[in-house]
UniProtKB/TrEMBL annotation:
Pathway: Lipid metabolism; phospholipid metabolism
This protein's UniProt keywords: Acyltransferase, Cytoplasm, Lipid biosynthesis, Lipid metabolism, Phospholipid biosynthesis, Phospholipid metabolism, Transferase
Enzyme Commission code(s) on record: 2.3.1.274
Chain's role: Catalyzes the reversible formation of acyl-phosphate (acyl-PO(4)) from acyl-[acyl-carrier-protein] (acyl-ACP). This enzyme utilizes acyl-ACP as fatty acyl donor, but not acyl-CoA.
NCBIfam families to which the protein is assigned, alphabetical: plsX
Name of this chain's protein: Phosphate acyltransferase
């Protein structure tokens, strides 16, 4: 299987992306990785003799920057690394693409270059959020679309359930609807309209879920519109960062606190790893007619490697085909 990686995206530069790609290539010899980007830059991050035989480079002369207007950039920068990777998926030259670049541009690449699955109105960005039990929750949509209809939320629920089944092996994923209370009558007009649709859907719907219960593993798939979902994501990221920063300050305040930190370090390190987004790799754009994965902008090499692992599993389990078949069945029915 061939996976295209946008080597020029991400906040940390191409060196980290290349490192992660090399780690993945050495881990899985059944994967061919195509690094898409400036050939000279990519080569500079590969010491002589370090490139595995299952890694190739596809040279491109342009990049999409973080501050580029997404749709304009995708339409005008036809030789940008992200656009070329998307075109490879569209044309069947790659089974998947991964990028840590501009999120809006990647969404535009998915829509304008790769295209939507027939019947899916709005694709969704679906990252894994950490939970205390380590199993995580797939949340969608977390920012691809700021608005959504009840039918959109229904499609998110079905796609999310299929993803957790095909990629994570959950036989009966629990699907929850993000809301301000657990009662069926709670919420705004959108959630009230979506609730009965989810009840009748071919999924294991467990009802409304409050944000405060999310970290305790109250569901396997969380459904929401992109506005609320992105606020939830940013609040969780900010809280986690503040907590770890405060702990570091307290544990370095005095000699005694440093001793306490030494004792607690193994447990704290394990907890931090459990909360680390990089362990999950990347967020798929579900509803795109090809496998498109968005890595976090600040991804390290381990996150890129895990993104390849996630793409590999999704390809093996024919995730895109399963979503297409399920949504087609729903339309025909």
């Amino acid at each position: 299987m061939r996976i295209a990686i946008d080597a020029m995206g991400g906040d940390r530069g191409s060196a980290v992306t290349v490192e992660g790609a090399l780690l993945a290539a050495k881990e899985w010899n059944d994967v061919e990785i195509v690094l898409v980007g400036d050939e000279s830059q990519i080569a500079s991050h590969m010491p002589a003799g370090s490139k595995p035989g299952n890694v190739t480079v596809h040279h491109t002369a342009d990049i999409i920057a973080a501050d580029d207007e997404p749709v304009r950039a995708v339409r005008r920068k036809k030789d940008a690394s992200m656009v070329v990777a998307g075109r490879m998926v569209k044309e069947g030259a790659a089974a998947a693409m991964i990028s840590a670049g501009n999120t809006g541009a990647l969404m535009a690449t998915g829509l304008l270059i790769v295209g939507r699955i027939d019947g899916i109105e709005r694709p969704a960005l679906a990252p894994m959020l950490p939970t205390m039990d380590g199993s995580g929750v797939l949340a969608l949509d977390l920012g691809a679309n700021m608005d959504a209809s009840a039918d959109n939320l229904l499609q998110y629920a079905i796609m999310g359930s299929i993803f957790r089944n095909k990629v994570h092996g959950l036989a009966k994923p629990r699907v929850g609807l993000l809301n301000v209370g657990t009662e069926a009558a709670k919420g705004n007009e959108l959630t009230k309209a979506a609730y009965p649709l989810l009840e009748r859907a071919p999924i294991h719907f467990v009802g409304n879920v409050e944000a405060r219960d999310l970290l305790h593993g109250s569901c396997d798939v969380l459904v929401c519109e992109g506005f609320a979902g992105n606020i939830l994501l940013k609040a969780m990221e900010g809280t986690a960062g503040a907590v770890f920063s405060a702990l570091k300050t307290e544990f370095t305040r005095s000699f005694m606190s440093k001793l306490a930190a030494a004792v607690l370090k193994p447990g704290l390190s394990a907890f931090k790893k459990k909360m680390d987004y990089s362990e999950h790799g990347a967020a798929p754009l579900l509803g795109i007619n090809g496998l498109v994965l968005k890595s976090h902008g600040s991804s390290d090499a381990n996150a890129i490697k895990n993104a390849v692992r996630q793409a590999r599993i999704a390809i093996e389990n024919r995730l895109v085909e399963a979503i297409s078949t399920e949504t087609s069945g729903k339309r025909d029915g």
